[in-house]
Amino acid sequence: MNIRNFSIIAHIDHGKSTLADRFIEITNTIPERLMKEQFLDKMELERERGITIKAKAVRMLYKSPSDGKEYILNLIDTPGHVDFSYEVSRALAACEGALLLVDASQGVEAQTLAHAHLAQSLGLKIVPVINKIDLDHADPDAAEKQIQEILKEKSAPLKISAKSGLGAREVLERIIKEIPAPGGSHDKPLRALIFDSFYDTYKGVVIFIKVVEGRLTPGTIISFYSSGSSYEVEEVGYLTPSLVKSDAIKTGEVGYVIAGIKNIHEIKMGDTIFKKDSPIDSPLPGYKEVKPVVFAGFFPVNTSDYPHLKSSLEKLSLTDASFTYQGETSRALGFGFRLGFMGLLHMDIIKERLEREFGLILIVTNPNVVYKALTKTGKKGPVEITSPSDFPPYGDIVDVQEPYVKASIITPLSYMEPVINLLKDKRGEHIKIDYISSTKVILEYFLPLSEIIVDFYDKLKSISRGYASFDYEPYEHKSSDMVRIEILLHREPVDALSFIVHRSKAQVHARSMCEKLKQVIPRHMFEVTIQASIDGRIVARESVSAIRKDVIAKCYGGDITRKRKLLEKQKEGKKKMKILGSVEVPQEAFMSLLKMRQGEKR
Questions:
Q1: What spatial distance separates the first Cα and last Cα of the chain, rounded to whole Å?
Q2: pLDDT at 40
Q3: 462 has a pLDDT exceeding 80
Q4: Which CATH class name applies to 484-601?
């Protein structure tokens, strides 16, 4: 079978999209007049930020000069950032091999390692490639040594420059020789793996599949293994990367299916498609359904925009099924939604898309992770906490568990000490240290996820001058002494400002929040008290002094008792206002406070 299904895996900015461009040019898949840099990165945000957010698939036809045969090459381009690792797992499940791309100047980085281990665990053939050898400070020999030592990869890597195209054709030849052709038979019943999908306004859900066995043609009644729902196939075809209609998709091929599906949430990534009249005993080995790890509240600045936010989230979820959302109400911010994400970058991307594509102006609350709490009352099992308002009353808590991750940090030896100090400060638990060369070291630690989403990445880059790289994988929930800090304004709790932290850092965070609130809350006619409460105890306090009106301005001379009477009257009024008055916190104050906190986290 002259088909090769492969992916390109690498750390961020090691040249995946650039190498994909060279392959497209060599195979003349796109006319030269339509070609542009990072061709597969279609989204405006991808081009601006220089990162791949969505996995892309492209079918290329290549005639090999070595044997004169024509090959079908299906390339699935993957993101490099840790927040989009679910996209990588989808892509690799549809491949038989992967190009492992390493930057000649930076060597093996943390996410190179993570993606390589994922590919090895799926049994894929790995072809190592060292890129950017034309840079002045490139050290391809050191990069080759790291590939052999860390990844235990025996085969000699190809040394190329994706930017200039040097060695790109040799990579295609190596793919043909080393990556195996897909197995399976045309005669067996249909089994196809779903690895991605998107929503088209006119066609409905467009599913990207790899046919493992059998063949798929228009008119076939297909069923989904996970839901059991059935649809008639209206159109099938290939990705070049635009959709090109075909008569059939055969065994080993990658293509798309349109079957009049209106809701993208009916499609599960990693699910198996089969013919309704030829049921299968077991699904194809897909991958686990990924659960969101970071949650935040999204509220419109103008409360009348709530219906617009709701419809915008519905439309956006049709093109990106990786985030979750559900309605939420806040006494301070009104009606909004609590969204679940794969990480902070994922949250930023969704926020930016909502603001750009749908014209919304949003307030985003502080992000938090999913905790689990065992309580004296209620259910026997642990209760999931996705918001500070879900945190049980302190007298009802038996145990609180927070999610931990297994983190791998690759850093130059000279920065090892400050990196270890940072890991200790973030409540990290040491696993092991491996020296991968005379200048580089891998640190493995268990870290609380809540400490990573705050400001860990920025601090790591700062103390290592940008040389350290970081990757993590979910581990498990562990018991921790977590507390909820409630913020009270004029003795009234404000739910939008509450947050969950470890008890050891609670005092510092509480005091910091009170000080910031003092800066943003406008002065009232009475003194406003700002308090932070933990377990019903006040642990920090600030106050905003009252505006004092000059009531004796018009009393020129005369009896002092008249002035005293006016001052006493003012005093009584302020006392009454202090008891009955309510604190008005403008939306701008919430926005500036949340920006201050999130800016501090970045």
A1: 50
A2: 56
A3: yes
A4: alpha beta
